[in-house]
Amino acid sequence: MRSLIDIQELTTDEINELIAVACDIIDNGAKYSEACRGKKLATMFFEPSTRTRLSFEAAMYELGGNVISVSNAESSSAAKGESVADTAKTISCYADIIAMRHPKEGAPLVAAMNASVPVINAGDGGHNHPTQTLTDLLTIYREKGRLDNMTIGLCGDLKFGRTVHSLISAMSRYTGIKFILISPEELKVPSYVKRDILKKNDIPYVQTTDFESVIPELDILYMTRVQRERFFNEEDYLRLKDRYILTPDKLASAKPDLKILHPLPRVNEISVAIDSDPRACYFKQVYYGKIARMSLILKLLEVKI
Ligand code: NCD
User: What's the mean pLDDT in 67-89?
Assistant: First the structure.
């Protein structure tokens, strides 16, 4: 039995296999419509979510399975002081697989250590978000036709943005990848990500505060929201929140085949005028999120088609 807490737990072959199954689901969806008949997914979300929770639930329904759900901490026994470990043991009696989001880094890992069914980390604090990364990889693969040989710009809150940390970790395995890390000084990629992933694997990267000057180099631009809920004071958030806003004039110097991604929700960092630009992929990315999660559920439940 396997859980997925950190994208590093998957080998590159496994990631490629998950993407291949996802592509088959896109082409032959009907084949999978009964794959999880009789199985239950529990979604336990102790932090706000629209896409991640609903895409997990939609994924399970499309596989013919069922869903039970805790949609906020206040409505569960966590509010009475129950530990994550006890909650995980309990949910294991009701469901075949659990997707958990939690504000505390490491909580889904604790759940996985105590559950008797697979646990999927659906975002733990400012740490990791492996299923967003599977979504991002599927999006890049479908929209660019490859996962290697490209320059990826990550822009915004690279410190608290958990999707950024998991994406760097996953993309660093492919050849010919260069990262351009665009953020304010205060929101740079944490040093553990640089040390344990980028430097360790000799991945070329540049850190800059200057968005406009690097736009022409990019094959992928991954925009992110400044993570208000992780700030210690509102003043810092207000000062930094609108630092980078992607507007049509900034795209004038971009490559014609640039792909713009964003895990969403968007606050202000991409002007709505960009939405109709053919390079904008963030709503397609939402669709790929459901497919990527279908592929992952099949793998962790060891369902063979
Ligand atoms: C992201 C998250 O929760 O980390 N959202 C998502 O899952 N699509 C990004 C964010 O909240 O900014």
Answer: 89
In terms of phi and psi (left: phi > 0; alpha: psi -120 to 50; beta: otherwise), the region of 91 is alpha
Whether 225 is a known active-site residue: answer no
Q: What is the pLDDT of residue 75?
A: 80
| Across 171-182, average pLDDT | 98
Residue nearest to atom 11 of ligand 1 (CA): 265
7-128+287-300: what fold? Rossmann fold (3.40.50)
Of 100, 128, 132, 282, best ligand 1 pocket probe by most atoms within 8 Å of the beta carbon: 132
List the domain boundaries for the chain.
7-128+287-300, 130-286
Q: Is 52 a catalytic residue?
A: yes
Instruction: Return the CATH fold of 130-286.
Output: Rossmann fold (3.40.50)
Q: How far apart (Å, rounded) are the C-alpha atoms in residues 276 and 263?
A: 17
Burial of 26 from C-beta contacts in 10 A (0-12 / 13-18 / 19+): middle
In the chain, what percentage of residues exceed pLDDT 70? 100
Residue position matching structure tokens 């590093």: 8
Query: Could you confirm whether 224 is annotated as catalytic?
Result: no
Tens-digit pLDDT profile for residues 212-231: 999 999 999 999 999 999 99
